[in-house]
Design a protein that fits this description.
The protein is built from 15 helices and 16 strands. With 592 residues, it is of the alpha+beta class. Keywords: Kinase, Membrane, Phosphoprotein, Transferase, Transmembrane, Transmembrane helix.
């Protein structure tokens, strides 16, 4: 059976083998992922539900502790002998002065008892005639929204019983009230009513203590079939939430998931120990399961990693079949895209006598022929560059022009035109240096003299329209550099900056050493070059293009000239020249 399957697989085409492998690995991976996903979802969702239930249960218990503490405090008040004696006297006819004195005594007693109760805002003590004996009551008809003191007292049972809670609609205030009976007599005579106004800010504080609290959570408190919430909801919407929490729950104790208006809600229900309070928490199920959603994201990333691994395996499988041809194709493609001769490298021969072996041998012969052609072409370019440079120098009859300038100089001196004489002298010096083809190199000092002559000429023409600042940071000015590589850069600044600006232009020449290289930069604050000029095209004549070509040929540098242009801020042209002459070296792409 195994041999039969192997034979059947080997008889398939390459494409069929590849598809079959991908489908098989993908199917196994998806199956494993599905199983893992189901397991994660089951355990983590259950854990998240239980964790949220525990947090809400703990918060509900804390809330009830506060309510219970206030109820216990009321027991402490009504059982106080001094307070009961004072109430007995308050219910008897007395003079005004005696009543005031009695109220003061009860006020001091109440203040001492309530001192440590931080949740109680104020205490009101009523006698049997509903006359307030403690604290000032501004409005007995509106102790809470639409709730008067009389309504509170009337709602309390006539006999001894636990007090009752009253809450405002927005849950911001609460009142706890209970009647006081004389515990010293078996008849348990009615003595009055105590009303405690409660600061309910502890509710919001406890709800926010959970880590982290859910902003979309709806908290509902049920007390004696009345429902209260701290959220601002329309009455109709709140009523629908009440219907939702009153639906029969699922078998899972204390929490369930129910659908409300197209969205699932996680509902937790908790009762106080005396069953007087019921606390409900409603949260969108998607918010509760946010953590498991992150886990799902991890699973997705795992899936991507798994499939990337599969692709890598397939790529390795294919590469093992056609890697010899890929090596040739990669070399040829790299050369075609980058036009970089260094990419066209020799590769190791194959010990094969088939078609691929013949292809490799032909490739090696082609590389040798290309090397010879490159060498011949390179020498031809060097020769053409030198011919172009010398031809440009010889465009004018040097002796005729030099003698003419000398005559103009004498004529200007005879007429005491010193400015013209200075300009002609500078022009003659500049011309003499440019036509001197006895050498292709010069010193930095001679090049600076040439620049000074050029600046002198331009100073007469442009006067105050420019400022030239030379910054020479080297001591040895006798260093040899290629001829006419700095002055054209200065000329470029006049052409593209000074001539095009209506405001003064700053031109700076900076020469310094860095590592094993001489750095020459010329910068100005003119309009700079447009993007198509930054490529050193033919529009620059023998300027930047010629300088870059000469430095490349002489020093075998990959990028001897760079341009950085920021309009009206700084346009800088930088030359890089090795300190040691490498023109005869076989090294290429030397980097400073």
């Amino acid at each position: 059976m195994k041999k039969k399957i192997s034979h059947r697989f080997n008889s398939l085409s390459f494409s069929q083998k590849l598809k079959l492998s991908v489908f098989f690995i993908g199917g196994v991976s998806l199956s494993v992922l599905l199983i893992i996903n189901l397991i994660f979802w089951f355990f983590f969702s259950k854990q998240i539900y239980e964790s949220n239930h525990d947090k809400i249960t703990f918060a509900s218990a804390n809330l009830y502790e506060h309510f219970e503490a206030i109820e216990n405090f009321s027991y402490k008040l009504i059982g106080n002998d001094s307070l009961q004696n004072s109430l007995v006297q308050a219910n008897q006819p007395k003079d005004t002065s005696d009543k005031i004195k009695l109220k003061q005594e009860m006020q001091l007693l109440i203040n001492a008892l309530v001192l440590d109760e931080k949740d109680i805002r104020s205490v009101f003590l009523l006698n049997t005639h509903q006359e307030n004996q403690v604290n000032f009551m501004a409005d007995s008809n509106h102790l809470l929204d639409n709730l008067s003191v009389k309504a509170i007292v009337d709602s309390l049972p006539d006999g001894p019983s636990k007090g009752q809670w009253f809450f405002s609609e927005n849950f911001s205030r609460a009142v706890y009230a209970r009647k006081i009976f004389n515990t010293k007599r078996l008849a348990l005579d009615y003595l009055g009513t105590i009303i405690l106004t409660v600061d309910t800010s502890f509710i919001e504080q406890i709800l926010n203590e959970r880590k982290p609290p859910t902003s979309s959570e709806l908290f509902i408190l049920e007390y004696q079939d009345h429902y209260y919430t701290n959220s601002k909801l329309a009455t109709a919407t709140f009523d629908r939430y009440i219907e939702l929490i009153n639906k029969p729950s699922l078998p899972t104790p204390n929490y369930r998931v129910a659908r409300f208006e197209g969205e699932k809600y996680f509902i937790v229900e908790n009762h106080s120990t005396d069953r007087a309070f019921t606390f409900y928490s409603l949260q969108p199920n998607k918010d509760v399961l946010q953590k498991i959603t992150h886990i799902e994201l991890v699973i997705i990333l795992t899936t991507l990693s798994l499939f990337i691994g599969i692709i890598a395996l397939i790529n390795h499988y294919i590469s093992s079949l056609i890697s010899p041809i890929n090596k040739l194709a990669s070399n040829m493609t790299s050369f075609q895209q980058n036009k970089d001769l260094s990419q066209l490298k020799r590769i190791d021969s194959l010990n094969q006598t088939d078609e691929i072996g013949v292809l490799y041998e032909s490739y090696q012969q082609m590389i040798e022929e290309i090397d010879q052609l490159i060498s011949q072409n390179y020498q031809a370019k060097i020769l053409a560059q030198e011919i172009e440079f010398k031809a440009l120098q010889a465009q004018l009859d040097p002796h005729f022009l030099y003698n003419t300038l000398d005559s103009i100089n004498w004529l200007a001196l005879n007429k005491e035109e010193t400015e013209i004489s200075q300009m002609v002298t500078s022009l003659a010096f500049l011309f003499k240096k440019k036509i001197d083809n006895s050498s292709t190199t010069t010193t930095i000092e001679d090049e600076l003299d040439l620049i000074n002559a050029y600046i002198a000429i331009q100073s007469i023409r442009f006067q105050h329209r420019f400022t030239f600042v030379p910054v020479i940071l080297i001591d040895d000015l006798s260093q040899v550099i290629p001829k006419l590589i700095i002055q054209p850069l200065i000329e470029n600044s006049f052409k593209y900056a000074v001539e095009k600006m209506s405001t003064p232009c700053l031109i700076q020449l900076k020469i310094f050493e860095k590592a094993d290289c001489l750095i020459i930069s010329v910068s100005d604050n003119g309009p700079g070059f447009s993007d198509h000029h930054l490529d050193l095209d033919a529009n620059h004549g023998i300027g930047l293009k010629n300088i870059a070509a000469r430095l490349t040929v002489k020093y075998q540098l990959e990028t001897p000239l760079t341009i950085h242009s920021s309009p009206f801020n700084q346009t800088e042209v930088t030359l890089t020249i090795p300190l040691n002459d490498r023109s005869d070296s076989h090294e290429k792409n030397i980097s400073c």
